[in-house]
Write a structure and sequence with these properties.
Oligomer: single chain
Helix content: over 70%
Structural class: mainly alpha
Family: Belongs to the ABC-2 integral membrane protein family.
Shape: globular
Subcellular location: Cell membrane; Membrane
Order of helices and strands: HHHHHHHHHHH
Keywords: Antibiotic resistance, Cell membrane, Membrane, Transmembrane, Transmembrane helix, Transport
Organism: Nocardiopsis terrae
InterPro entries: ABC2_TM, ABC2_TM_bact-type, ABC_2_transport, Nod_factor_ABC_transporter
């Protein structure tokens, strides 16, 4: 009886060696990061309900504050409350994205996706960089939607186009810093615990600021705490760039909002970006 000879086993293909040289390693990390980001964007396109709800929620908040509460609000020094509110709402969208980042990172960890990435011959920074790119794209889209809706309810900027672009840039810079915090929390608290913590803190962080009311109307000690909230610096700086009512406080940080709107995010990135990469490399530790 004829027997078929067993086929020889296919030779194992060795994993490609990491590129040498700083420029080649940087290009390798960027390419891998974009691959991870594209995977997240594709997931959103296939299941758009969660991103759509994320866009709808700030729109509902604008409607509530403008039409339900706006009539009872006044801006110290005068000015239209809607124009005072919208820069704060833009910043709130950036803060609310923090929970989305933690949720996505925790979900990937729970499903074993993160461990799968770690077993692949890819840059150690690609997963966190890709997460950052994807979340920035999503936040930029949410910001565009809210800008359009704000225009419908009566908001507009009064400065130059360059100043307006600088204001939008500061908002995205704040989101960029918060992405790294979200990735780190998601990697450290690999489960529902991290999501619950961040979602619980989002509203206090957002409301303990100058986003909705001037800090001068708060008790002195509470107003000082709100002024030192990094979100308050971004909101005050953006209001100034947009030419919207500002009602700035008297403290040093409030009087130097534009400077601190840059310093705070850069400081947060300098702290949390290395922590994210280190934690990703040592997830089993």
């Amino acid at each position: 009886m004829n027997r078929t000879a067993p086929r020889p086993a296919a030779p194992a293909v060795p994993a490609p060696a990491p590129p040498s040289g700083p420029l080649h390693r940087l290009a390798w990390a960027a390419a891998d990061g974009w691959t991870v980001a594209r995977r997240d964007v594709t997931h959103w396109l296939r299941q758009p309900w969660e991103p759509l709800f994320g866009l709808l929620f700030p729109v509902l908040m604008v409607l509530m504050f403008v039409y339900l509460l706006g009539g009872a609000m006044s801006v110290p020094g005068g000015g239209d409350y809607t124009e005072y509110l919208m820069p704060g709402m833009f910043a709130m969208v950036m803060v609310f994205g923090l929970g989305e980042t933690v949720t996505a990172v925790a979900a990937d960890s729970a499903r074993g996706v993160t461990d799968r990435f770690r077993s692949m011959p890819m840059s150690a920074s690609a997963v966190v960089v890709g997460r950052c790119l994807a979340d920035m794209l999503r936040s930029a889209a949410a910001l565009v939607v809210l800008i359009g809706f704000g225009s419908l309810v009566g908001w507009q900027w009064h400065g130059s186009a360059g100043a307006a672009l600088a204001g939008f840039g500061l908002l995205l810079l704040l989101r960029f810093a918060l992405v790294w915090i979200g990735v780190y929390v998601g990697l450290v608290m690999r489960g529902q615990g991290g999501i619950a913590v961040i979602q619980t803190l989002e509203f206090p962080i957002g409301f303990l600021s100058n986003a909705f009311v001037a800090t001068a109307t708060m008790p002195v000690w509470l107003g000082a705490v709100a002024d030192w909230n990094p979100m308050s610096s971004t909101v005050a700086a953006v209001r100034g760039l947009f030419g919207n009512p500002a009602a700035a406080g008297d403290g040093w940080v409030a009087q130097n909002a534009l400077l601190m709107a840059v310093v705070w995010p850069l400081l947060l990135v300098a702290v949390f970006a290395p922590l994210c990469v280190h934690r990703y490399r040592n997830l089993d530790g």
